[in-house]
Amino acid sequence: MVLEGLRRLEYRGYDSAGVAVLTGADGGGIASAKKAGKLSNLLGELEQHPLPNSRTGIGHTRWATHGGPTDVNAHPHLADDDRLALIHNGIIENFSELKSVLLEKGVTFRSATDTEVAAALLGDEYQAAVDVPAAQRLTVAMQRACQKLEGAFTLLAIHADLPDVVVAARRNSPLVVGLGEGENFLGSDVSGFIDYTRRAVELGQDQIVTITPDAVEITDFFGAPAEGKEYQVDWDAAAAEKDGFPSFMEKEIHEQPRAVAETLLGRTDAEGRLVLDELRIDPEQLKQVNKIIVLACGTSAYAGQVAKYAIEHWCRIPTEVELSHEFRYRDPIVDSNTLVISISQSGETMDTLMAVRYAREQGAKTLAICNTNGSTIPRESDAVLYTHAGPEIAVASTKAFLAQITAAYLLGLYLAQLRGNKFQGEIKDLLADLHKTPDKIQSVLDNEQQIRDLAVAMKDTKSVLFLGRHVGFPVAMEGALKLKELAYIHAEGFAAGELKHGPIALIEEGQPVFVVVPSPNGRDSLHAKVVSNIQEIRARGAKTIVIAEEGDEAVREFAEQVFYIPATPTLLAPLLTTVPLQIFACALASAKGYDVDQPRNLAKSVTVE
Ligand code: AGP
Prior knowledge:
Blueprint: H1 2-8, E1 16-22, E2 30-36, H2 39-48, E3 57-62, E4 77-79, E5 84-92, H3 95-104, H4 114-128, H5 137-148, E6 151-159, E7 166-171, E8 176-179, E9 184-187, E10 199-202, E11 207-211, E12 216-220, E13 229-232, H6 237-241, H7 248-254, H8 256-264, H9 283-288, E14 291-296, H10 298-315, E15 319-323, H11 324-327, E16 338-344, H12 350-361, E17 365-370, H13 376-379, E18 383-386, H14 399-419, H15 424-446, H16 449-457, E19 463-468, H17 472-487, E20 490-495, E21 512-516, H18 526-539, E22 543-549, E23 561-565, H19 574-591
Parallel strand pairs: 14-15, 14-16, 16-17, 17-18, 19-20, 19-21, 21-22, 22-23
Antiparallel strand pairs: 1-2, 1-3, 4-5, 5-6, 6-7, 7-11, 8-9, 8-10, 10-13, 11-12
């Protein structure tokens, strides 16, 4: 049953898998198996060394965050003399502090994962819970452990003392209960148990659930009884994989608040200072950097363009953004004081990998911003800053793009902090603004119907232009790319200031033009210049669709449609202004009946040059 559930969850993307079962009705023990790679590796292992039959078990397909995809780092992790097994989705933000406390208690660790720290903490709390009746001991231990955990997590645990019990907890990470006859289930989503029951219970934030074959009990993290919300699952398994969305792309567009929030998790210390401890480049060398080159392709290159504005503004380091496939053929100027930052969701893009190799041969320090733990580009780089967008299944990149921009902001602020370009107070303020963006992205998503209706109305359009200025320029390019790759429509992004130097000749009656307008409260007169660009194209018959900040009335009289987004500092605006353009392209392609997850001619990872 557990293995079938993991197979059902394979679509979520993973790089290792494992199971653990309770082996005896009289508290016999725990048997487990786990392997890096695909489920088939685990199945092979289990053929060689089968686990005993059991009525109680847990399993996990892991997407590596802390610690690469290896057998040792795979879940479940054992603790309490291998009498407790734990699996975990998410990120434990304070795992290093917890680990040092446990090490002082003499706990030893086998892996590099934050999960094993959570397992050891739970084992420690279990041993300490001598004041609790045996049947509640794992539940209370889980409550006490969760009171100490920070971050985003779904945890599932079993203990050899309690043959029929599974205890789980969730905070900012998915968990759902399946109610069967004489059996009960837990899963990240209903597709894990949809073959056995369609009665499900949705859990709230910071809740603990204890299941046995005949009972489901829910409490909060402090033991107070709580209620879940029971519902009937009317999705088929395929729909369940997409959380009820029609496509992975729509699901991933709606996962963006979490992708940004999780990329921010665990990267500041208690004083609010940035601690990018996975960087592994000597801070003294980073202080010597006098030039930055960003290497990427496609959407990731547009994330690099946004990063350029932020890094140059905060760090005053000259920053070039190069298409990976152009970089090594132009005889670039690279030396040991050059920091080469590659941006890649897959970490396997051959153009970017070859460019990184070239840069290393020229003596540059290389740093990868990547969403796939243990992939080739980070492995061949001096350092890595992982985005935590989770697996991105749709070919057209959305949540990884916002997570890449977020990681680039973190890197820019870290360099500014290290090199003293910014006062600590300024960095804290900028980080505070960054932490507000997930909620702002959510509010853009909550108002998506207007842009979806526009997309359906425009489904037969033959060409769309996108204009933007400053950080809005790469956003305009990304909006055009989304429309090209999803709806197969000619689309082009321009710097708004470039209009009069040629592109305005394209404007004719009814030509749809999206304009990404900077905040009216931003610096310089950027806003006024873009408003005059809108007037110029409007005067020539353009159908102007404007993305503007809430309260910006100046754009209204020149816009056919205005899509308002929450106010945010100019440099952070791409995290919000991109979202309507993603929704537009996805909705228009869907209205044309196209497969938005697998667009024609495209691959998710371009592993050939
Ligand atoms: C984005 O929607 C495209 N799928 C494509 O441009 C992609 O961004 C590019 O191929 C780079 O991929 P990477 O981030 O995995 O390196």
